[in-house]
Amino acid sequence: MSSSIRTTKPHEIVERALELSTADGCVVIADEESSANLRWAGNALTTNGVTRGRTLTVIATVDGKEGTASGVVSRSAVTAEDLEPLVRAAEAAARGAGPAEDAQPLVTGTPASPDFTDAPAETSSAVFADFAPALGEAFARARAGGRELYGFANHELVSTYLGTSTGLRLRHDQPNGTLELNAKSPDRLRSAWAGRSTRDFKDVDPTALDAELAVRLGWAERKIDLPAGRYETLLPPTAVADLLIYQMWSAAARDAVEGRTVFSKPGGGTRLGERLSELPLTLRSDPNAPGLESAPFVIAHSSGDDASVFDNGLPVPVTEWIQGGELKRLTTTRHSAALTGQPLSPGFGNLTLDAGGEKSLEEMVADTERGLLLTCLWYIREVDPATLLLTGLTRDGVYLVENGQVVGEVNNFRFNESPVDLLSRASEAGRTEKTLPREWSDWFTRAAMPALRIPDFNMSSVSKGV
């Protein structure tokens, strides 16, 4: 081998680590990561860069009289000389641990990826070949219109190679792009935000986003103070995504069975089968959803409530979490599925909410007699896990709608709401569209959501944020 593991092909590293293993079972995950980014402020590019990296995770399993233990060690910048010590460290961690509660036989039978031995996919600044000139045009338009644009574009590509001592050889390439654009007035008293999720930056138009933000800054020229209270509110797709992603992060079947979550039934059991919304809402995950493609098999670097290292390589099916408004599935590993008696439902790599609505957000505004139009949510935190009560702030524009027209910008608010409650009270869902969850964009970006109309959204207090 070369003196540096970085010059060796990822699949060879996986094979070598498996050869070195003396444990009863072994899983090796090599993540080849590359990223390219642009940042700008005041209508001018400020920085750009490209990064490369590799992270190697070794999971060793050791059988004992009382059960199977696991040890997990992950390291970046590993050299060839570090490989055997890394494998031995994982084995030592397993031998020093007690039996793993989530222990299961390592997965077998998942067909090998035909491209497992191919070189990793990589991104570069070339991903912005068409986007960058359009961004320059957006700068010129903003400058001419008296606006200042701030923001960033980031593209990541992770090629994951997964091999196991049970013969699995799997590979997945995950592109992930985010665009966030802020427009501000020169006095910085008005601000508007737009964001997009993309796989390749070929489907995002910064000039169109600038035009959208120009309209919003125009709305903000008139300021209206409103008190805290309950208001009919239009939640845009980005806000709906932020709320439902958090809901799914709180949807582990075991936690529900043990009476610790909003999906626990009073007196015991879960709320599976209960109707959560009168609207025909369907919440699903599909690894092959167009534009939202995600890993078709489990990639688990650690174990938790909704993931198990023993499940690595398990196929991920299409799953409907809510169907026609009814709660159908909660997330399970093989261990928690057996423990709770629930179907096996591995975690999700994307999320789509659909109610068959056809209206755009603009059309929903036109149908509003009086209400609030939000831009996005921010700083979301959990208040009560039993009800999934969340609190957070509005940001970058809350607008008052009267008789189908936006008449001005109102102050920001702190809200207190449970996404599960919101689904039960939603009176209308718009057209489902791909969106960027602003709050969770560092962790989860592959979402498609409709706008939702909430008749009585709880703005619990006034916020002084912009």
From TrEMBL:
InterPro entries: Metalloprtase-TldD/E_C, TldD/PmbA_N, TldD/PmbA_sf
Gene3D superfamilies given in the database record: PmbA/TldD superfamily
Listed GO MF terms: metallopeptidase activity
Residue ranges of domain Metalloprotease TldD/E C-terminal in the record: 229-460
Pfam families linked: PmbA_TldD_3rd
A GO BP entry: proteolysis
PANTHER family linked to this entry: CONSERVED PROTEIN, TLDD PROTEIN
UniProt name for this protein: Peptidase
Native species: Streptomyces xanthophaeus
